[in-house]
Amino acid sequence: MIQHLYLLSDATGETVERVVRAVLSQFRDVDITLHRLSRLRTKTDISEAVAGATVQPGLIIYTLVDPELAEFLRSEVESRGLEAVDLISPLLFKLSDMFGIAPQKEPGLLYQVNSEYYKRVEAVNFTVKQDDGQELRNLCKADIVLVGVSRTSKTPLSMYLAHKGYKVANVPLVKGIPPPRELYTIDQSRVVGLIIDAKRLVELRSARLRNLRQNPRSSYADYEEVEEELESCRQLYRKHPEWLTIDVTNKSVEESAAEILKKLNDRLTR
Question: How many structural domains is the chain composed of?
Fold first, then answer.
């Protein structure tokens, strides 16, 4: 004989179905039909769902975060001689007492959290592929494009911002080599130029060369060469006043990222 289970939810219904399927895994050779009804957010929705369950009676299992709707469902179930199990209210009340605060009573918050998670994952995957001027054809898809000379924290900044959900590309600037033309075909307000003190940059590059067991006195870390490189960079930034400019000297990645996001947000709210 087929047993009918009605899964009612004010959101997607994924939570109640996962819980029920986890429990059903403990019962073999039982013929079960699951009826999933989601986004029930009014009394009319509830009434129609319960009425449908009377056609082929079975157990109603539900997750409704609104206590008024949950109470209405219980009354509808009792009036029709059905049975129901509330999966979420007892835990909500228990945690509310424990934390000393009321629940938000907003359906679908778990789904929203998952959406944010997947957004961050997508942003990180995009950012990894765009590191150091790669995949320039996708530059137009970036939320933020960082430009700067070597060792100005382009990659760490890109990854930090990506974990916050921003798709980031970074493009290296090399003295004597024009920036890629793709850089000028995108929304210029999304470009962020990074600058740094010459002395600090020499320190960073020298340390980099030592870690690579290379000559720390090469032109890559020579003060005069570095100063010329940075001046070339400044000239480029002055030619593009629509770009944001961020000084990363002695700043943590978190501090630089916060400054970038604030300036971008200020620009959008003007």
Answer: 2
